[in-house]
C-alpha cells in the first residue's frame, strides 16, 4: 500500500466508505457521489483507489488459505484448541466444507464487494471525467480489476451472477460458467487497447496491457475445464504477447528469493524483472475490507524463531512478536523439492535449526511436560532443553476429531515451514511489507510450455522443453532436462509457485484435486467448486446453489 501511494500515485479516499492511511485536504460533506466528487484530475485518480484497497483485502490470508489448505500444499491444524476456528481449516483439508465455512463465506463477500467497488468507480468516472485517453485508461484499469475478480469468482464458485451496473441491487441469477468465461474474455479484449504498455514504478500495482494478457493466458490454459473447449493456441498467443513485449525477464538464481523479500517492489532485484502484476502491501496501512494485510510470518514461522521468552528459543528473524506458527506443508508436496541444487529449496525451514552462524543450534528450554504433554515420567516440571528440529509429518496427537496436533513443543515443531515471503524485521506489528505477485513472468513461460504439451502449436522457436529449461537455468545448477512431460511441468509449478495461491487451480487442471494427501481421502468431484454461502442468498434470492451442496 505504501508502494501504491508513494510510487504509483494512488492515494486512497477517506470518506464513509473506508478507512485509509491517506487523507485528502477537502471537506467531506457526504458519501462519495457523482454530484460531490470528483472535480479535478487528482480526484479522478483517487476515485480508483478504493478498488485497489478492496483487492488487497483477503488476498494474503483468507483467499490464500482457501486456495492452499484445500490442496496438498498446506495444512493448518489446531494446537490445543487454538487455530481450530470453527473447523474451517479442518474442512478445507478434508474437503468437507459446507456453505457456512468461514473462508467460503468471507471470500465470496470479499470478491463481490470488489465488484461493487469497481462498478462504483466506473460509474463515477464515466459520468464525471472528461473524455480522452486518460479516462479510457482509468476505465480499462477498473474493468481489469473487475475482470480479475470475476476470474476468481468463476474459478472458485463456478456459476456466478454478473453485475456491471452500480446501484443495481435487483436479484441476479447465476450465470453459467462458460458465459462468465466469455464475459471476462470480452472485458479483457475490450480493455486491452486502452491499457498502458509501461512497466515501471508508475504502473506498479495497476493493470497494464501485460497483466491483461497474463490473465487471458490463465483463462485459456483452464478453458477446457471452465467451458469444455480447449484454447491452447490462444493461451500460447497471449503468452507470446508478454514475451514479445521485451518488458520482462526471469529473475536470476541469485534474485529468486530476493524478489519476495519485504523490500520487493518495482525497483527491487527480481521483482522488477518478473512481476507482471502484484498486490502492494504496507505494514503500516489498513483497509476497509478483510484483513488487508500480509501476515505470512505470523502463520509460517515456528514460535521459537520469533520473539521468545528468555531461554525459550532464538529470535532468528528478529521480528518483534511471537509468531503463531500453525501452518506447514505436507510431505506429499515437499517431495517435489527433490533437486539438491535448486535455489527454491531455500524457501523452506526443515530439520535441525541453527543460529545465523550456521553452527550454533537453536535450543528451546521448557519442561518435560512442556515438551511432551503426554509425559508420564516422575519429573513433569523438570527443565528440558532440546535443539529445534522441524519434522515433516503431521500427527493429530491430541484429537483426530478436532484436527488437533497438541499444545506442546513436539506439536509446535512438526511440519516443514515456508518462508518465501521472508519475515519483515522492520515491521512493528505482525503485518509485512512484502508485496505479493499475482502474475509473474515465470508463469508465462510455464503456461506456454504446458499449452504446447497439451496440443498447442509451438511458436518463436520455443518448445516445451526449451521453455522449461530456460526457467530451470535460473533456478538450479543441475543439468538441463533431456525431456519434459506434463507431470514434470506440474511438479515444476509446485516448486516455482509454492505459497503464491495457484496450487488449487493447478491441481484441478491436472486432475489431481480428488487425490489423497495428509488425512484427506474425499474424492468428490463437485468440490472443485465451493458452495455459494448462506449469507449470499439473503442478499440475492435469485441464486441457485451449486451441485452437491
Automatic annotation (TrEMBL):
Domain of life: Bacteria
Domain SusD-like N-terminal, chain residue ranges per copy: 86-221
Entry's localization field: Cell outer membrane
Domain RagB/SusD span(s) in chain numbering: 406-549
UniProt xrefs under InterPro entries: SusD-like_N, SusD_RagB_dom, TPR-like_helical_dom_sf
Organism name: Flavisolibacter ginsenosidimutans
Protein name: RagB/SusD family nutrient uptake outer membrane protein
Keyword check for Lipid metabolism: no
Pfam families reported in the protein's UniProt record: SusD-like_3 (PF14322), SusD_RagB (PF07980)
SUPFAM superfamilies: TPR-like (SSF48452)
Amino acid at each position: 500500500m505504501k508502494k501504491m501511494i508513494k510510487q504509483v500515485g494512488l492515494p486512497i479516499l477517506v470518506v464513509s466508505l473506508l478507512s485509509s492511511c491517506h487523507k485528502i485536504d477537502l471537506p467531506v460533506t457526504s458519501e462519495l457521489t457523482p454530484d460531490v466528487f470528483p472535480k479535478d484530475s487528482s480526484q479522478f485518480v483517487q476515485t480508483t483507489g478504493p478498488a485497489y484497497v478492496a483487492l488487497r483485502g483477503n488476498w494474503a490470508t483468507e483467499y490464500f488459505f482457501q486456495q492452499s489448505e484445500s490442496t496438498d500444499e498446506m495444512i493448518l491444524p489446531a494446537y490445543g484448541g487454538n487455530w481450530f476456528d470453527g473447523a474451517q481449516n479442518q474442512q478445507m483439508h478434508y474437503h468437507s466444507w459446507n456453505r457456512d465455512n468461514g473462508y467460503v463465506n468471507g471470500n465470496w463477500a470479499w470478491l463481490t464487494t470488489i465488484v461493487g467497488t469497481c462498478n462504483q468507480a466506473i460509474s463515477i468516472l464515466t459520468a464525471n471525467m472528461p473524455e480522452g485517453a486518460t479516462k479510457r485508461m482509468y476505465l480499462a484499469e477498473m474493468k481489469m480489476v473487475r475482470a480479475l475478480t470475476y476470474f476468481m469468482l468463476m474459478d472458485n464458485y463456478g456459476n456466478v451472477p454478473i453485475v456491471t451496473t452500480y446501484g443495481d441491487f435487483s436479484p441476479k441469477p447465476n450465470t453459467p460458467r462458460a458465459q462468465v468465461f466469455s464475459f471476462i474474455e470480452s472485458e479483457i479484449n475490450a480493455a486491452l487497447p486502452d491499457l498502458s504498455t509501461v512497466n515501471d514504478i508508475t504502473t506498479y500495482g495497476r493493470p497494464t496491457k501485460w497483466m491483461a494478457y497474463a490473465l487471458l493466458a490463465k483463462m485459456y490454459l483452464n478453458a477446457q475445464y471452465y467451458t469444455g473447449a480447449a484454447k491452447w493456441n490462444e493461451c500460447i498467443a497471449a503468452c507470446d504477447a508478454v514475451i514479445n513485449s521485451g518488458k520482462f525477464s526471469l529473475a536470476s538464481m541469485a534474485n529468486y528469493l530476493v524478489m519476495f523479500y519485504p523490500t520487493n517492489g518495482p525497483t527491487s532485484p527480481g521483482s522488477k524483472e518478473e512481476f507482471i502484476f502484484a498486490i502492494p502491501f504496507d505494514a503500516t496501512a489498513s483497509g476497509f475490507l478483510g484483513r488487508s494485510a500480509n501476515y505470512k510470518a505470523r502463520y509460517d514461522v515456528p514460535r521459537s524463531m520469533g520473539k521468545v521468552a528468555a531461554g525459550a528459543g532464538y529470535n532468528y528473524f528478529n521480528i518483534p512478536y511471537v509468531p503463531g506458527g500453525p501452518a506447514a506443508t505436507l510431505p506429499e508436496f515437499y517431495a517435489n523439492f527433490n533437486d539438491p541444487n535448486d535455489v527454491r529449496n531455500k524457501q523452506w525451514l526443515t530439520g535441525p535449526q541453527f543460529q545465523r552462524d550456521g553452527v550454533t543450534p537453536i535450543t528451546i528450554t521448557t519442561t518435560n511436560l512442556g515438551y511432551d504433554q503426554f509425559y508420564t515420567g516422575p519429573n513433569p516440571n523438570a527443565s528440558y532443553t532440546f535443539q529445534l528440529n522441524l519434522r515433516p509429518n503431521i500427527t493429530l496427537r491430541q484429537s483426530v476429531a478436532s484436527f488437533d496436533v497438541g499444545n506442546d513443543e513436539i506439536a509446535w515443531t512438526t511440519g516443514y515451514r515456508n518462508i518465501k515471503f521472508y519475515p519483515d524485521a522492520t515491521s512493528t506489528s505482525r503485518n509485512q511489507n512484502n508485496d505479493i505477485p499475482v502474475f509473474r513472468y515465470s508463469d508465462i513461460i510455464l503456461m506456454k510450455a504446458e499449452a504446447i504439451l497439451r496440443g498447442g502449436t509451438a511458436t518463436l522457436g520455443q518448445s516445451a522443453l526449451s521453455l522449461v529449461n530456460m526457467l530451470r537455468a535460473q533456478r538450479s545448477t543441475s543439468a538441463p532436462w533431456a525431456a519434459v512431460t506434463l507431470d514434470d511441468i506440474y511438479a515444476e509449478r509446485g516448486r516455482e509457485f509454492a505459497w503464491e495461491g495457484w496450487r488449487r487451480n493447478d491441481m484441478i487442471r491436472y486432475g489431481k484435486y480428488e487425490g489423497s494427501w495428509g488425512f484427506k481421502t474425499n474424492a468428490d468431484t463437485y468440490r472443485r467448486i465451493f458452495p455459494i454461502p448462506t449469507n449470499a442468498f439473503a442478499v440475492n434470492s435469485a441464486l441457485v446453489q451449486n451441485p452437491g451442496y
